[in-house]
Amino acid sequence: MPKDLSVVLLLDYYGGLLPEKQRRLVEYYYCDDLSLAEISETEDITRQGARDAIVRAVKKLNEFESTVGFAKKIDTVKRRFEAYENEPTDDNKASLKEAIDEM
Hints:
By secondary structure, the protein is mainly alpha-helical. The chain has six helices and no strands. It has two domains: about 5-70, Winged helix-like DNA-binding domain superfamily/Winged helix DNA-binding domain (Arc Repressor Mutant, subunit A, Orthogonal Bundle); about 70-100, no CATH class. The two termini are about 35 Å apart. The model has no long low-confidence stretch (mean pLDDT about 90).
């Protein structure tokens, strides 16, 4: 299972919406960089059980982002702020204000 590190960002935003055990397993795998074998030993579950729980949790995190879109909105604000910071024009200011208003 390849590690998509954008999951860490989604976990920051939506991790509190996951069941405690799923959140913990995702943290072990993505944040603590534990292998599935190490997670299964730590949690006293099978390796396949750990993998399945992580896959389900990541699917939920992606569904939350698809519904709410908070990570995308934050990214848009950050990019527009950087553009304004680099070139403080009225157009960049208006674009930043628009992104903030959409949140």
